[in-house]
Amino acid sequence: MTLIQQKICQHQMLFAPASLLDQVSSDWFEPDHWRALGQLTGSAPGRGTTHFIQHQQHAWVLRHYCRGGMVGRWITDTFLYLGIARTRVWQELTLLQYMQDLGLPCPAPVAGRVSRHGLGYRCDLITVRIPGATDAHHRLCKASLSAQQWQDIGATIRRFHDHGIYHHDLNIHNIMLDDQQRVWLIDFDKCGRRRGNRWKAHNLSRLQRSLHKEHGKNGDYHFCMDDWQALLSGYGQGKNV
């Protein structure tokens, strides 16, 4: 496993695989830096804005960590600092690297930043952008997925589960399909490794609820129970460890 390493710059800690550590700087985590270079190619709204970067031959995604829920209404992006290993970005970066080493279809880590502010911190993450990928939610807003695609989604989730990878927010927005119809999972904030099996059914239920929620908001959403049964069929067949 290629370890994530760190360097300290004033009140900031920067993280990257060893091969990138000498190149990464705090500017990398500032959208205005990439905008000034003409290398900011787009953005996507969400809990926090996600920015897309084209740097030399690299296509990257920059994300600033924001809070959700009730607390997020008053404290948008600051977290209590309890040591570097418990920061959100460190945990996500190291999990992504672990999954990369297993060959799982997830974004490759590029770099992370923790900025200390008294007892709190803010953080940012850069990952490799998945080429030619669109999230499954946007596809379902336009057209149905085939039974094979639903089976592939189920089999992909099973691969992560068989390796003990728990996805905290397994919803249809965090499932991607690329232009080769390969399935990817994204957004591993607050995720991790778990033992046992009971959590796996809850993970699937979380995904099913998100599909029903989107279907309820949009009468033209291309999802039905036959699709869910196809996903479960793929999940049951997807023994890939």
TrEMBL record:
InterPro entries named among the record's database cross-references: KDO_kinase, Kinase-like_dom_sf
Chief localization: membrane
Q: Which Gene3D superfamilies match?
A: Transferase(Phosphotransferase) domain 1
The EC designation for this entry is: 2.7.1.166
Subcellular location, in the record's words? Cell inner membrane
User: Which GO molecular function, any one, fits this protein according to its record?
Assistant: kinase activity
The way it spans or sits in the membrane comes to: Peripheral membrane protein
Where are the active-site residues found? D169
EC supergroup of this enzyme: transferase
The pathway is: Bacterial outer membrane biogenesis; LPS core biosynthesis
Report the catalytic activity.
Answer: an alpha-Kdo-(2->6)-lipid IVA + ATP = a 4-O-phospho-alpha-Kdo-(2->6)-lipid IVA + ADP + H(+)
Record keywords, A-Z = ATP-binding, Cell inner membrane, Cell membrane, Kinase, Lipopolysaccharide biosynthesis, Membrane, Nucleotide-binding, Transferase
Q: Which NCBIfam families match?
A: PRK01723.1
Q: Which family does it belong to?
A: Belongs to the protein kinase superfamily. KdkA/RfaP family.
Function (record text): Catalyzes the ATP-dependent phosphorylation of the 3-deoxy-D-manno-octulosonic acid (Kdo) residue in Kdo-lipid IV(A) at the 4-OH position.
Q: What is this protein called?
A: 3-deoxy-D-manno-octulosonic acid kinase
Organism expressing this protein natively: Fluctibacter halophilus
- Which gene underlies this protein? kdkA
